[in-house]
Each structure stands twice: as C-alpha cells, then as structure tokens.
Amino acid sequence: MIKVLRIINRFNLGGHTYNAMFLSAFLGNDFETKLCGGQHEKHEGDSLFIPLQYGLEPQIIDVLERNVNFSNDRKALKAIRRIILEYKPDVVHTHASKAGALGRYAAYKEKVPVIVHTFYGHVFHSYFGKLKTVLMRGLNGFWPKSLTQ
Question: Is the predicted pLDDT of residue 37 greater than 70, yes or no?
C-alpha cells in the first residue's frame, strides 16, 4: 500500500480544498491517504465539512496560517515533520504556497521518496503586492532539482 500525505494551506472554502479532498477520497484502493492543513481564517468560510462528508478526517495544524509569522512558521514546520515521521508517507503532495514551501522542505529533510506540489497560479500575479509576489515566485522556484521534477 502506497501512503500519501497531502498538505494544504488551510481548510477554507476554495478550489484547493476540493482538489485535495477529491484526490484523497478517490485515489484508489492501492493508496492510503492522510490530509492535513491549517484552520480557516475568521473572515473565511470553513470547508471542513467537505472532507468530512466523504469520510475523511483531516488533521489540523493550528499554527499553519496564511500570513508569514516566523515563530508560527517554524512551529508549523516542526508539526509537519512530526506528521511525516509518524505517518511515514511514500509521497508528500502539497497544495499552495505556504503548505508547499513548508511541506516540501519537511519532506525533503525527512527523505520522503516522492514530493509533488500543486501550484495555484494566482499567487504568481496580482494576488499579493509586487514585493510579496516576487518573494512567492522565489520560494516556489527555489528548490533542489529533485523537488521540482
């Protein structure tokens, strides 16, 4: 059985929740899957009902949040590494920027054999200001070749 760990930024209403949930719920019988991510923000709709209605019980990483917060980001990285060590996935599949950066780095450090990332293009233009856009492009493009193939 191939174990897949899927990490999303947060469980807010949006395409990434549906994408990650459908991939997790309908991957096939040869796969075991675990879904985790941050909590939705107060001004956003909660999307936890989506995976729950398909029999998935996601693991919430409380410190994984949208905004850059070096203290919480360090804690989120430790939490993701701990999940990887406990779950022992064969594949880590990350979604969106923050979960992608932290999840791919954690998977790389824990020597997960296959690391996959789904980009959501709006962060590459017009979503953030110019400085954050450049930073996000850099973070999403600055990986050892083995992490981007």
Answer: yes
What are 39-98's pLDDT values in tens digits?
887 888 778 888 889 889 999 999 998 888 899 999 999 999 999 999 999 999 999 878
36 close to 6: Cβ distance less than 8 angstroms: yes
Q: Give rounded-to-5 percent helix, strand, coil for the chain.
A: 45, 20, 35
Closest CA to 2 of 113, 111, 79: 113
Within 8 A by CB and 6+ apart from 22, the residues are none
pLDDT of the residue at 140: 61
**Under 8 Å CB-to-CB from 37, ≥6 apart: which residues?**
7, 8, 9, 10, 11, 20, 58, 60, 61, 64, 99
Q: Does residue 148 carry a pLDDT above 80?
A: no
Decide if 9 contacts 37 (C-beta within 8 A): yes
What sections of 2-117 are H helices per DSSP? 15-25, 49-53, 70-87, 97-109
CATH of the domain at 39: 3.40.50.2000
Look up the domain containing 33 and give its range.
2-148
Give the total number of structural domains in the chain: 1
